[in-house]
Amino acid sequence: MSYSLDFGWLEGAVGAIARGAAMTVLLIVVTTIAGTLISVLAAAGRRSGPKWLRRAITVYVEVIRNTPFLVQLFFIFFGLPSIGIRLDPIVAAMLAMTLNMAAYTTEIVGAGLDAVPKGQREAAFALGLRPRQVFVKIVLPQALKVIFPALTSQIVIMMLESSVVSQIAVSELTYEADMLQARTFRPFETYFVVAMIYLGLSIILRRVLVGVGRRTLSAGVS
């Protein structure tokens, strides 16, 4: 059985694909900023917070890391309305992605914090710096240097996992691809094009993150 490739539909689909790609980029930008901030706070709280906070963070990390992302997404979007909390699909997607990414990056950031020699902290305290200053100016910059490659990889993975949110009708790239193949009946060509776009987005995202990392972390602990 022969199959004839046909990309003639692509010209009229550029707008839909561009909108989907833009939504995917928006989702990962919000998730990266919020997820990284939460993970830094969670990693710090897990090491220096009160006992109840450390336990709460541990439970959160274990629950998220040991349940499927799709189930987490469905719980937020379909489950929470049962107790009166209704979220817009985009908000639900951002929340689910942020919570998922933060759980993984909490472990990554924590490993970086543990890698900073204790002598660095002791020297900073000896100079009269307060605990918050020591964390922000001494410990965190060095930790981020150590874990930056792993953090970058996790962000790229989260961007690829964003395709799951098409299941709650968020019009990101995979959702638009589903709509296109349903109209054109060209699933091979449609998903081939979308796969190449995801590949391009992954490469661009990684390069952007590496560039940002070089500019912000290469100067050390200033």
Automatic annotation (TrEMBL):
Family classification: Belongs to the binding-protein-dependent transport system permease family. HisMQ subfamily.
Origin organism is: Aminobacter anthyllidis
**How is this protein positioned relative to the membrane?**
Multi-pass membrane protein
- A GO term from the CC aspect: ATP-binding cassette (ABC) transporter complex
- Which biological process terms from the Gene Ontology are attached to this UniProt entry? amino acid transport
What this protein is called in its record is Amino acid ABC transporter permease
Per UniProt, subcellular location reads as:
Cell inner membrane; Cell membrane
Under Gene3D superfamilies, the record lists: MetI-like
Task: Return the NCBIfam families for the record.
Answer: HEQRo_perm_3TM
Lineage top rank: taxon: Bacteria
Q: Care to name a GO molecular-function term for this sequence? A: transmembrane transporter activity
- Report domain ABC transmembrane type-1 positions: 21-209
Entry's PANTHER family?
ABC TRANSPORTER PERMEASE PROTEIN (PTHR30614:SF35), MEMBRANE COMPONENT OF AMINO ACID ABC TRANSPORTER (PTHR30614)
What are the UniProt keywords, alphabetically?
A: Cell membrane, Membrane, Transmembrane, Transmembrane helix, Transport
Q: Which residues cross the membrane?
A: 20-45, 57-78, 90-113, 190-209
